[in-house]
Give the backbone structure.
Amino acid sequence: MQRDQRSQGRAALILGDNTFEAGIDTFAIESSAFVKCIDAGFECIVSEDQRSTALATLVTLHNKRMEERGGSDGLHSSELVGFHEELTRLALAQGWLRLFVLKLNGGTVAALYGFMYGKKFYFYQSGFDPRYSQYSVGLVTMGLAIEAAIGDGAEEFDLLHGDEKYKSLWAKNQRDLVRMELCPPTSRAWMYTKTITWSRLARKAVRTSLTMLHSPISSEAK
């Protein structure tokens, strides 16, 4: 049996009542400017009638945001979207789903998808319309989602996998993640694992190159 072990980045966490200490100044500035200049609204989807439409909007916004970085590998196929369609339906029925939308002049410009279970909020995915980057709609949506989680009694806001720069605006605590893959000691398995590794490296290189063409922080957080 062969083992392939690699670091998978960090899961940044926000704990307790001091959640906003790291990001409050930036959030306050951006959200204040946003609210003053625009007719905006923020809501959490609570009905089945709204859920499917809101999820479809999030998928569209997420893929728009990721286009400039080589595309998404999280919500890019009909199979994955179908899985989340069923998952969000079940999670809403259980009271776990947290699907937020940020509206500007009547249209949705950003969305955030996560789960509230026990005393922990699990952030899963988000998206925004790049045309509204100047208003930091991604940052505002994240801040309002954290605020809502605190209102729900969350003691921890888990940003999960990834070391994107915008997470450092909010989080003080980090956890190392390790990915372990086991495979039989055969040439076929070796070729398969190498192919997967090369594919991951190629996607990462493309995204890094595309990200460097844009503003380092605005393309992720705004």
User: Anything to note?
Assistant: The chain has six helices and seven strands. Residues 187-212 form the longest helix (26 residues).
